[in-house]
Amino acid sequence: MTGTSLDTPRMAAVRTDRPLEGRKVLIIVENLPLPFDRRVWHESRTLTAAGAQVCVICPTGKGYEAPYEEIDGVHIYRHNLPLDAKGASGYLLEYGAALFHETRLAWKILRKHGFDTIQGCNPPDLLFLIAWQFKLFGKRYIFDHHDINPELYEAKFNKRGFFWKLMVLFEKLNFKSADVVISTNQSYREIAMTRGGKASEDVFVVRSGPDLNRLHVMDPDPHWKNGRDAMVGYVGVMGDQEGIDLLLESAREIVFDRGRNVQFVLVGGGPALDDLKAMAADLGLADHVTFTGRAPDAELFSVLSSADVCVNPDRVNPMNDKSTMNKILEYMAFSKPIVQFEVTEGRYSAQDASLYAEPNNTADLAGKILSLIDDPQTRAEMGRIGRTRVEQELSWDYQVDTLIAAYKRVIGKGRKPADD
Fold it and tell me: Least buried of 48, 280, 289, 324, by fewest C-beta within 10 Å?
């Protein structure tokens, strides 16, 4: 399927104008399969609509095991990864295996489809090792900057040291190798121009806005509340740096210290999922916290449609302060009031659609969650503000032109596209 009656206005325009006709793009993403990775999937569909041929290399994942399939005109090549990494040695094994398969598949795609531009989506910041091979043949490299990895390493392991220094080096080499950088927000753009040394005209802010045609608001399903008075929803990765432990501490205070009948539903998978389930049980919250694991869209949409309040408990640190979390925009798209800790990019995204707790203060987080549960009128108004902001400023449709501009910029730096 290469067209749809549900195109947003800008997508419809690029599908008509086809400003990238004849271009051939290879996108490499290491940490999530397509089409599960929503940002990369939006980018892929946009480039295809604009006339480019798009091939993607990504890992397999639950429900996405096929080594190759074509969806909406996008050629998706998947490879296995050895494990869901924990610890520095685990990441080295995962990234080493990923680089092997990405290199193997990139040469296969070059022979079968051809490409003139590589878009590398971190983490890790090692994709320049693949880009270098093909830049020798005149291919161009766009770095799609998803995570600030030195800060991510420090957030995961709470230290610097040798591997942190490697992260700094890899980031520098990745920026240096890139002809154009796509940043997910203004904070990342500043990093590209300062630490990365990129010229302002070579850095484009393409936010991870939701596609409002894909997100389906549903009738609330009472079973998610588990018979309780209210429900708090969370969507995201179950990792060490996401602050789910802080949310569970807040849930313990809400349920036991304040005696409130509240259910918490947490959607997502990740390396810390089993540990978080054990923590919830140790806190006596096993019946008050539902872990769905990684969920299909219908289940995710049902949870978001049923929640009274949605929460982002990301621990306040340099990584989370400067990063835009997709979950915030999805909460807003579902007209949900939000509670989160005070972080720069979280406040930029949500503005008056969120309350902001003191950094890493679980008691304040609990109090602000309960203040919204007890105030349906404020919840409705905050939900309306959030939905309007997504509709008028932050949805994917507002990112389309900037993505196309980034590709036009890299075209201007490159030679005529090759067929092989």
Answer: 48
